[in-house]
Design goal:
alpha+beta; 177 residues
């Protein structure tokens, strides 16, 4: 990671670059990118929303993370709340910083960029814990989250229009370096 800089990101100004990274990392269609663009820009209006980016020396964005203090009235919370409640974990929706998106371009993965992004953004959180959702399968992302102290709070969570189930994970803050 020595040639990659992690720092504050004006995500609204660089939303198309960020979504291009997400599209490659996550396999999004042009239609999905269009929907997510609107969602990202709406999220950035939420109190406490912030983003970090990982850039090459030439300024190319190769990874990003953004999140915000969780709000039970947000769409994501309303979808996951019944799953969390069924497992006795719905209290995690309160006083949590939610990692909304975290993506690293595949050509730059396995360089500790994702770890640096998530630990840096949660280090600035006032909340005592963090929550996120990830595709509910064993993956490098889920392994990273576990190493950072995240544990499964609910599995087999179904989001409208998503073809794969997700897991909701939570961890106390601060995350280990």
């Amino acid at each position: 990671m020595n040639d990659i800089a992690v720092g504050p990101l004006d995500l609204a100004a660089r939303v198309d670059e960020a979504l291009a990274v997400q599209a490659v990392a996550f396999g999004l269609t042009p239609e999905e990118i269009g929907v997510r663009r609107h969602i990202v820009l709406r999220h950035l209006e939420c109190p406490g929303a912030r983003a970090l980016g990982a850039t090459t020396p030439e300024g190319r964005l190769v990874g990003f993370v953004y999140g915000m203090p969780n709000d039970r009235t947000h769409w994501w919370s309303t979808v996951v709340e019944p799953y969390l409640r069924a497992n006795g974990n719905d209290g995690w929706l309160d006083d949590s910083f939610v990692i909304t998106e975290l993506h690293v371009h595949p050509g730059y993965q396995n360089r500790r960029i994702g770890r640096t992004l998530i630990t840096a953004i949660t280090a600035t959180a006032d909340e005592p814990r963090s929550i996120l959702s990830a595709i509910d399968k064993e993956s490098p992302a889920r392994a990273l989250y576990r190493k950072l102290g995240y544990r499964d709070l609910a599995r087999n969570v179904h989001f409208p229009s998503a073809t794969r189930p997700y897991a909701v994970m939570g961890a106390p803050l601060p995350l280990p370096d």
